[in-house]
Write a sequence for this structure.
């Protein structure tokens, strides 16, 4: 067990964790931030993507203890003062989600893409999202939503 | 008031999913809950010689360990097949018992033998490792084609044959083939798939010892049906003491229709230990134990004349059921497959013969499309081959055999009420620039690439419901749907539906329908589903039935509300009910032009005493309140149809197949929300293209699943697809008042043959099996080079 201090969605959090506690488990089970989803056990699906110090990360690939001192943003922390982030708005407007399970990871990953590439092409969007699996949408409306968000961010 | 039906209304469910406020089963935790881990067979077929839990019981944090012996002692029932199928010789199908925990014998890798319940997940995992099972490993049967020649898996089921089923007339077909100029024949494999909903299955069972009630939160597409099965067949609890809640469910695609071993075991065990038990599948467990889909081996023949008229059709299929027959396991390769195998064509004589076999693999059941993708693949590969052998353009040959009039009495079972297949074909050709293909092919050729174009036309029977029909075909229950529409006294509406949304957008589509019917703003309408304590018993969501059956039940319940509203208005405004009209939320007496809003009527129905004159507004004999229920049982299935066209480009040096263009032109009848329908088409296409190019579930000869993770099973990614070109034609369904047809499965049904026809076209007609991986295609390209150089 060790103590970690993190800034999660703008709030300071101090918790005792086991050395092997995954960040995804920490968020879901210790902080009840269940918006971060777990869809696989091989770090393939991307449903658990969050931002750590501003960069997207599959939270099942990091130990909570290893990122002590970091700033973490989860899907719950993306909206500001109850107003959805332009990426969230775009997913809603263009039907970029169906069952909603992959959505948090997909949105967090897409936000990071636009941080790094303000006007990505279709191909660049599709390549970037290669690490996020969606079984419902066939990706077309997700790509459209990311393009839409790019015009608003 | 503008009609919402037909509008691109943004989804009411989205905000909670987009902000992390969804509530999936694994998000729910109860005070003092325990955690379950299942001990599963590592062998495909083995006898359990000894199961020793003594060491595991001493492990830290263990609350209880339960095995197949206890479940048998408590007379907990097993998992069941929902449809009885009869063999050609008149005998009933033969199905093995499927206990929730195996006691004597295991039949596939992942078959559970014990459950370990502990205070924490970690402790449950550690203890599960300490359960010692002594297995006598037996030779496994894994091949679909050879299953009938393997060892007998289930005692008393000879040749591992569940049934040998025939639909159609062999003699008539024989005569038709005798008249043929040519017989086109094909041997195809419909590859085994794993549904892979992104949310792994999970359940959380709670028991209240005072009220003796079990509450089961579970990832189900049909909570009411799950409760019925667990009560009537599982003997877990009387139905009124079992509440099943399927909250937000992260995709199903058929894989969450079944009641699974874990649902039964956790519910039963929660009562035994008097504590809540939570179980969440790891993805590897999903791969091993969720139902799989498809897995057919087919030989089919088409008798044709030289000028391209179809005379007869034969379909000989072996369908793999896996280790056990589950809810839709036996109907999927029979009534959902056989009738549709003659496709969109007038074929005077046809039969489908299906031998369903047991193997030591995960159970195979309904996966998006269920039987209809297999049927469409069979006929559309055959027709494409016929076009090549007859030298007739693939679109012309199809149109030549389309029905000319509707209703279209299809050869084997269905009478298709409406459609216009020629219009669909012509629009698809135009959308895909079919006539400009040759220029694109030459362009590819100039770059050293092979280009192919593939077409497929499909129809499918969905909106699975008509009770008289399905029960005559062996279904254990009628498949109608229910709805309840409740007004609050202050005018908002709650609609309860027996169907279930796990991505399909019921909260929006159904609210659009109710808003139009009742003239109430959509924001004042809530759709409630997924909880057996809320709303009437209903059948759930599968077979593209939610709108065509469940949606119509809502329409009918709304109509009853309006009828009552007219009677109350008449009393209040001193008119006769026949003189009251209802439009845009207002009841109007035509003669006097006096009005009441539906909100005023709701208020009056609930609070008849709160009026100035203190006189009840309710007609004599009218009950207070404004709430109506309807059950809808349609007269027929719904029959969406369409034509899809794909173009691929192959790099002969690497074998890589690039899907360049994909055009879908579908007829779904009237469309309620075009945005949502597009999403359904996209998703279905992705799964169908996935089957054709990427996905394959593979077992080795010992029954080990070789594709048991996302590292090994290729899930389609964003960069695998071009932008789909989607369009529609529209003929209204005549069997429901909205004129709607199902749209959820079409993409998965039409895409596999469309894409494979394109790949095979590019390869000069060489047959290859799905998925068309780079390795297979590269080998075919080498053959092509060889035959080209020989020809030169």
């Amino acid at each position: 067990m060790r103590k970690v201090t993190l800034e999660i969605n703008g709030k300071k959090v101090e918790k005792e964790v086991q050395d092997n506690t995954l960040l995804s488990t920490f968020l879901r089970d210790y902080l009840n931030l269940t918006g971060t989803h777990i869809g696989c056990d091989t770090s393939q699906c991307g449903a658990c993507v969050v931002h750590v110090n501003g960069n997207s990360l599959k939270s099942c690939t990091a130990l909570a203890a290893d990122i002590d001192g970091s700033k973490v943003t989860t899907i719950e922390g993306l909206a500001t003062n109850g107003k959805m982030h332009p990426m969230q708005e775009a997913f809603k407007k263009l039907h970029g989600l169906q069952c909603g399970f992959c959505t948090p990871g997909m949105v967090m990953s897409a936000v990071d893409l636009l941080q790094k590439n303000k006007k990505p092409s279709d191909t660049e969007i599709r390549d970037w999202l290669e690490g996020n699996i969606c079984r419902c949408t066939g990706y077309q409306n997700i790509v459209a939503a990311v393009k839409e968000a790019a015009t608003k961010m | 008031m503008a009609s919402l039906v037909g509008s691109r209304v943004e989804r009411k469910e989205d905000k909670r999913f987009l902000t992390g406020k969804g509530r999936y089963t694994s998000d729910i935790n109860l005070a003092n809950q325990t955690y379950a881990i299942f001990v599963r067979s590592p062998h495909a077929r083995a006898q359990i010689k000894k199961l020793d839990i003594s060491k595991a019981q001493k492990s830290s944090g263990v609350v209880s360990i339960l095995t197949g012996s206890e479940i048998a002692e408590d007379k907990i029932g097993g998992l069941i097949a929902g449809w009885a199928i009869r063999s050609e010789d008149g005998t009933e199908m033969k199905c093995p018992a499927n206990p929730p925990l195996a006691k004597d014998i295991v039949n596939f890798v992942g078959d559970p033998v014990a459950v370990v319940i502990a205070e924490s997940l970690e402790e449950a995992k550690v203890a599960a490792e300490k359960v010692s099972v002594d297995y006598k490993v037996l030779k496994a049967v894994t091949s679909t084609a050879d299953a009938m020649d393997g060892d007998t898996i289930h005692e008393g089921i000879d040749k591992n044959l569940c049934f040998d089923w025939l639909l159609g007339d062999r003699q008539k077909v024989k005569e038709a083939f005798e008249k043929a100029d040519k017989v086109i024949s094909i041997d195809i494999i419909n590859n085994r798939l794993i549904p892979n909903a992104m949310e792994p299955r999970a359940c959380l069972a709670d028991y209240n010892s005072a009220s003796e009630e079990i509450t089961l939160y579970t990832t189900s597409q049909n909570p009411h049906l799950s409760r019925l099965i667990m009560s009537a067949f599982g003997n877990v609890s009387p139905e009124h003491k079992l509440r099943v809640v399927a909250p937000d469910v992260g995709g199903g695609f058929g894989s969450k229709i079944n009641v699974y071993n874990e649902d039964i075991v956790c519910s039963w065990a929660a009562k035994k230990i008097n504590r809540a038990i939570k179980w969440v599948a790891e993805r590897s467990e999903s791969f091993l134990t969720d139902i799989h889909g498809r897995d057919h081996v087919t030989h089919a023949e088409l008798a044709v004349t030289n000028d391209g008229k179809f005379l007869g059709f034969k379909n000989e299929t072996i369908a793999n059921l896996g280790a056990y027959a589950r809810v839709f396991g036996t109907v999927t390769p029979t009534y959902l497959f056989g009738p549709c195998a003659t496709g969109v064509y007038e074929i005077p004589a046809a039969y489908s013969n299906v031998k369903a076999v047991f193997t030591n693999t995960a159970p195979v059941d309904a996966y998006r499309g269920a039987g209809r993708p297999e049927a469409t693949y069979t006929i559309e590969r055959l027709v494409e081959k016929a076009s090549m052998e007859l030298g007739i353009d693939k679109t012309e040959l199809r149109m030549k055999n389309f029905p000319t009039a509707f209703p279209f009495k299809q050869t084997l079972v269905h009478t298709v009420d409406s459609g216009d297949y020629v219009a669909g074909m012509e629009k698809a050709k135009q959308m895909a620039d079919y006539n400009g293909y040759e220029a694109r092919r030459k362009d590819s050729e100039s770059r050293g690439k092979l280009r192919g174009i593939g077409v497929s036309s499909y129809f499918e029977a969905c909106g699975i419901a008509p009770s008289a029909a399905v029960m005559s075909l062996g279904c254990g229950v009628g498949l109608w749907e229910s709805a309840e529409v409740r007004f609050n006294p202050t005018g908002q509406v709650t609609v309860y539906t027996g169907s279930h949304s796990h991505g399909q957008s019921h909260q929006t589509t159904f609210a659009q329908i109710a808003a139009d019917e009742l003239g109430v703003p959509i924001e004042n309408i809530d759709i409630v589903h997924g909880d057996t304590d809320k709303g009437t018993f209903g059948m759930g969501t599968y077979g593209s039935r939610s709108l065509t059956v469940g949606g119509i039940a809502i329409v009918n319940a709304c109509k009853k509300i309006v009828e009552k509203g007219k009677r109350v208005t008449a009393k209040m405004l001193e008119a006769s009910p026949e003189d009251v009209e209802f439009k845009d939320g207002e009841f109007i007496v035509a003669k006097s032009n006096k009005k009441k809003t539906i909100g005023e009527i709701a208020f009056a129905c609930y609070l008849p005493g709160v009026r100035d004159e203190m006189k009840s507004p309710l007609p004599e004999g009218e009950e207070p309140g404004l709430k109506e229920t309807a059950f809808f049982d349609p007269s027929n299935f719904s029959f969406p149809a369409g034509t899809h066209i794909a173009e691929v480009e192959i790099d002969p040096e690497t074998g890589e197949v690039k899907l360049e263009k994909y055009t879908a032109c579908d007829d779904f009848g009237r469309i309620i929300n075009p945005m949502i329908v597009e999403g359904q088409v996209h998703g279905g296409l992705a799964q169908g293209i996935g089957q054709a190019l990427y996905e394959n579930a593979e077992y080795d000869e010992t029954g080990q699943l070789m594709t048991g993770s996302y590292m090994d099973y290729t899930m389609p990614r964003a960069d695998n697809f071009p932008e789909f070109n989607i369009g529609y034609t529209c003929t209204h369904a005549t069997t429901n008042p909205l004129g709607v047809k199902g749209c959820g499965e079409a993409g998965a049904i039409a895409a596999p043959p469309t894409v494979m026809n394109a790949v095979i076209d590019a390869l000069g007609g060489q047959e290859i099996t799905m998925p068309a991986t780079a390795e297979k295609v590269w080998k075919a390209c080498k053959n092509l080079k060889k035959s080209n150089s020989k020809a030169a």
Summary: Strands of chain A lie at 2-8, 11-17, 49-52, 55-58, 71-73. Chain A has five helices and five strands. The first strand of chain A starts at residue 2 and ends at 8.
